[in-house]
Amino acid sequence: MTPTNAGTVPRRRPFDPVAFLAVPAIAYLLFVYALPLLWLLVRSVIGPKGFTLEPIASFFADPFNWRVMANTLKIAGLVALVCLLVGYPTAFALAWARGWVQVVLLAAIILPLSIGVVVKAFAWQIVLRRDGIVSSTMVGLGLWDEPVRLLFTETGLVLGAANVFLPFMILPVYSVVKLMDLRLNEAGATLGATPFYRFRRITLPLTLPGVVTGTVFVFSLSVSMFVIPSLLIGDRFQTLATLMGRSFLLMRNEQLGSTTAAVLLVLAVSIVVGSGTLARRLGDNA
Amino acid sequence: MTDATDFLSISEAEKSFAATRVLTRVNLGVKRGEFVSLLGPSGCGKTTLLRIVAGLLSPDAGSVRLDGVDITDRPPHHRDVGVVFQNYALFPHLTVAENVAFGLEARRAPRNETQATVERFLDLVHMRDFAIRSIKALSGGQQQRVAVARALAVRPKLLLLDEPFSALDRKLRETMQIELKRLLRELSTTAVFVTHDQDEALMMSDRIAVMNRGGIEQLADPATIYLRPATAFVLGFVGLSTRLAGSITAASDGQIVVATTHGPIRAIGTLPIGSAAFIAVRPERMSIGSATTKENSIDVRLRDAVFQGSKVQLHFDAAEGDQIMVETTQLPETPLEPGTQIALSFAATDTMVFPTESTS
């Protein structure tokens, strides 16, 4: 507080009527999204005899569900990792490209977003078949002895999902790279730092907030994906999202579905909130 | 222009960007411990030359030698050339002390040695109390100090400064200029300084290289640059002057006579008889009234007098629409009224002569 207004109570900011412009969006989200979601979650703790934690307890008592949770986290983690390894350098290429090269790169990253996930997943089915492009290329190069079917394997699922979610990694990293002062790297060089040292001490820390954001995007999308695992790996491999779908659609077990949804939601929200905090802390230093 | 005793020598450096030639066969020699400024308008190639010396750009042709070693093909991190950037380029994610320590850590200096060096250099730039502050919490002048400390802490053989004062306000700039000059002398650092500000260059430099259109027009000490500009460009870029056109009618012993509409004017120079030329006189080298000790005199009429505190700037009209500016610190006893007819006199040794430019 400055000396001039020391001792006085800071005046409350008057309500800004512009905030009313958000009313339609808030009302829409409240009635068609938040309330139904709340109802769904409440269903997981309401039994025939009122409030009960029995469904949640039995969910966690079943080792099958633990495997489903492990599957979900493992696949989401691998997808995020693949996207990071492929997307991080791509973001630099995009940020530093000039002229038509940048336009082409940007189009190549953005345009696939307009193709539906189902279409992409079917395309991957063709690519990942035993006689698909991947298999025949690897055999042709002599790297594999015989054709291998990647479709309906975890590898195939990770490859397909990483393809769909890659832009969500590239774009946040791209936006921080774009803002980075290129002189910083030059300053590092004139101070005697090798390219690797510069990357470790300058580029990496300054792009970390973008990496965290991109990883959160891809991870939370992968944790809850339903169509891609349904088409690329099938029923033998269950994730929380596919289990939830099966509970509602096939098994008609709404109790299990609600409980799974609650677990998935808690998982996803804690990841987003946790890494949001991490990103803010990193952002403060950057 | 360069010789074997030069600490830094740039020879025949050339650089083009696409179809634009930015540097044309530039030669420059800098002695050990010397402070040399590259002075010129924007786009003259001074920053390009600086970046070539730092290794941030490679020349299309020519070479750069530092301390007897050809460094033309060395990457910047193997050159031992420090740079203070125009925007300082401080690392925003590090503290003041971490910024200064960066170069030492990159060179794997022992930890206790690094700490001692950081403290010493923060002391030198009066920033020790700010060691653990974030860069973002600093003012422009403080950032500039940190940038200088960071560049000097690794004890580079050569320090390059790219308009480091341009973002500071005038008063702060003057303080920082004096401080930097003192610091570089204490550490006997060789420095090359890029600026478009003539006052800055005149005040700080041992020698000034005036650059224009990708070449060096003149390399000399500040007094020579100001009093004996080698070309009309240097005359126009550094300081004020009055110019009068004429042609050479006589020449002997380094003195020539230029016939102008204001009568014959004696000047120092060597130009062929009959060639078109113009004479130029610095405003403070003209005296009001006729003086027998001065060879040249012209009749003028006062148009305007501008009081500037320590001096008065007088604008006169001469014949044929010529205008003459005089600066004096000695105010006349009776104030001059506009319209007053008066004579101005100036010495032949203060009169410069240049051939009339064929273009521009």
Quaternary structure classification: heterodimer
Q: Strand fraction band of chain B?
A: 35-45%
> Could you name the ranges of chain A where pLDDT drops below 50 across 5 or more consecutive residues?
1-7
- Spatial strand order of the main sheet of chain B: 6-7-8-3-9-10
Question: Helical content of chain B, roughly?
Answer: 10-25%
Q: How many helical elements of chain B? A: 8
Q: Approximately how much helix is present in the residues of chain A?
A: over 70%
Distance between the termini of chain B: 27 Å
Mean pLDDT metric of chain B: 91
Brief characterization of the structure:
The complex is a heterodimer of chains A (286) and B (360). Chain A has 286 residues and is mainly alpha-helical. Chain A contains 12 helices and 2 strands, in the order αββααααααααααα.
Strand-helix topology:
The complex is a heterodimer of chains A (286) and B (360).
Chain A: H1 23-43, E1 46-47, E2 50-51, H2 54-61, H3 63-96, H4 99-110, H5 117-128, H6 133-140, H7 154-179, H8 182-190, H9 195-223, H10 227-232, H11 240-249, H12 254-285
Helix pairs in contact in A: 1-12, 3-4, 3-7, 3-9, 5-7, 7-9, 8-9, 9-12, 11-12
Chain B: E1 8-17, E2 20-30, E3 35-39, H1 46-54, E4 61-66, E5 69-70, E6 81-84, H2 96-106, H3 111-124, H4 140-153, E7 158-162, H5 170-186, E8 190-195, H6 198-204, E9 207-212, E10 215-220, H7 222-227, H8 232-237, E11 242-252, E12 255-260, E13 263-268, E14 276-281, E15 287-288, E16 296-307, E17 312-317, E18 323-328, E19 341-346, E20 352-355
Plain-language structure description:
The complex is a heterodimer of chains A (286) and B (360). Chain A has helices at residues 23-43, 54-61, 63-96, 99-110, 117-128, 133-140, 154-179, 182-190, 195-223, 227-232, 240-249, 254-285, and strands spanning 46-47, 50-51. Chain A has 286 residues and is an all-alpha fold. Chain A has two domains: 17-52; 63-285, Orthogonal Bundle (MetI-like fold). In chain A, a hairpin with a 2-residue loop joins strand 1 and strand 2. In chain A, helix 3 packs across helix 7 and helix 3 packs across helix 9. The longest helix of chain A has 34 residues, at 63-96. Chain B is an alpha+beta fold. Chain B folds into two domains: 8-236, Rossmann fold (3-Layer(aba) Sandwich); 240-355, OB fold (Dihydrolipoamide Acetyltransferase, E2P) (Beta Barrel), CATH 2.40.50. Helices cover 23% and strands 35% of the residues of chain B. Chain B has eight helices and 20 strands. Chain B has helices at residues 46-54, 96-106, 111-124, 140-153, 170-186, 198-204, 222-227, 232-237; strands at 8-17, 20-30, 35-39, 61-66, 69-70, 81-84, 158-162, 190-195, 207-212, 215-220, 242-252, 255-260, 263-268, 276-281, 287-288, 296-307, 312-317, 323-328, 341-346, 352-355. In chain B, the strands form four sheets. Chain B has a six-stranded mixed β-sheet with strand order 6-7-8-3-9-10, sandwiched between helices. A five-stranded antiparallel β-sheet of chain B has the order 13-12-11-14-20, with no helix packed on it. In chain B, strands 15-19-16-17-18 form a five-stranded antiparallel β-sheet, with no helix packed on it. In chain B, a hairpin with a 2-residue loop joins strand 4 (61-66) and strand 5 (69-70). In chain B, helix 3 crosses helix 4 (140-153). Chain B is elongated, with a radius of gyration of 24 Å. Chain B starts with 7 loop residues before the first strand and ends in a 5-residue tail after the last strand. The mean pLDDT of chain B is 91. The interface between A and B is medium-sized, with 20 and 28 residues.
